[in-house]
Design brief:
1 helix; single chain
Length: about 35
């Protein structure tokens, strides 16, 4: 991970939130198609 913007601590949190959203959507998709 490159820290090009050290003054923006919300960027990693936003990326982590995005990953959780994608993971959750995949989980829901599998549950619906099961």
């Amino acid at each position: 991970m490159q820290t090009t913007h050290p003054n923006t601590p919300s960027t990693p949190a936003r990326a982590h939130s995005g990953l959780r959203t994608v993971w959750f959507s995949l989980l829901v998709d599998r549950a619906l198609s099961a």
